[in-house]
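Friendly challenge for the regulars: who can give me the C-alpha cells for this chain first? No prize, just bragging rights.
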Amino acid sequence: MPHHRIGAHTLIFPNRPRILASASVVGPKEGRGPWGESFDLVINDPLFGQKSYEQAEKAMYREACERCMKKASVARDEVQALLGGDLMNQIMASSLAARALEIPFLGLYGACSTMAEALLLGSILIDGGYASPVLCAAGSHYCTAERQYRFPLEYGNQRSMAAQWTVTGAGACLVGEAGPCLARVSYATIGQAVDMEISDVSNMGAAMAGAAADTLKRHFLDTGSTPKSYDRIVTGDLGQVGTDILMALMADSGYPLSRENHMDCGLSMYDQKEDVHAGGSGCGCSASLLSACILPRLHSGDWKRVLFMATGALLSPTTSQQGESIPGIAHALTLERGE
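First reply, four minutes later:
Bragging rights claimed.
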C-alpha cells in the first residue's frame, strides 16, 4: 500500500498543506442571509455590471480569485496553478476567468462538489512538491444554472418543493506549503459515483445523499475516526431533502450524525424568509461558505477539526432528457486548525 494512502479511498498528507488565504463573492439574495456580513463582497446586481449572467458568473469567479491572492500578498505570476470549475457548459466561467488571470489552469467538473475536488487535487500538488502555491476556486449563478438545467427565468415556471436554489457566488482558497495558515489539510477521501435512481432534475438533494453517506462511511472506516472526531461535519448542499435522507442512511450505517455537529451549507446559506424551498445548491454554495464561515472558525480556534465534504449531482440536460438517472458524488477533506 503506498504510504500516502490509508484504506481503500483515503489519502493522507504528511506535510499537511496550508490554506493560506480565502475569499468569497456572493449575490444579493445570499448577502441577505445569515452570513451576509462574513462574505468579502456582496454584489447588489446579479448582472455584476455585465451584459449577461454568464459574464457575471465569470466576473465573480475572477473577483474571488483576485481577492484571495491580494489577501495573501501573492502576485499572479507566483501562483503555479489554478484548479477549479463551475456549472456552465464546458466550465466556461472558470475558463474565461483563467484566461484573464493568466495562471496555469486545470479545469475541473464535479458539479457542486467541485470546491472539494479542487482542494483535494491542489493538496496533492502541494504535498507531493509539484507546485506551490496553488489557487482552488469554484462558482455558480442562479440565473445561468436555471437556463442551462431547467428553464430560463422568463418562463416563470413553478418550482417543486424539493427544488434547491443555486447560489450566486464564488469562493477561492490559496493553498501552499509554507506561510500564514487558516487551516491545514490532513486527509482526503475520494468519493465514487453512487446512483440513488433519481431522475428528477428538481430533486438534487435525494440524488446526492447516497454519495454523501458512502463517502462518510468510507472515510470513517479508512481513518478509524467517527462523527465525534470532528467539531463539525460540513456537507456541501444537500438541502433539507438530502440532509434528512443522509441522517437516515448514516443512522442505518452505524455512524449516526447529530444535528448539533452537522452543518449543511445549503441549509445555512439563506434566511428562512427567502423562498428557496429545500435550500441552496451550486458550486458557489460550499465554496463561499468555506471562506466566510468554516475557515474563520478553524483559524480562530472555535473549531479544531472539520470534515468538509462537498456533494454534486452528475447530470446534463441531454442525459436527463434521455431519461438517465442522476449519479451523485462527494469528496471529503479533513481540515484542522493551523499551527
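DSSP finds ten helices and 16 strands in the chain. Residues 14-176 form a domain with the Peroxisomal Thiolase; Chain A, domain 1 fold (CATH 3.40.47.40). Your move, everyone else.
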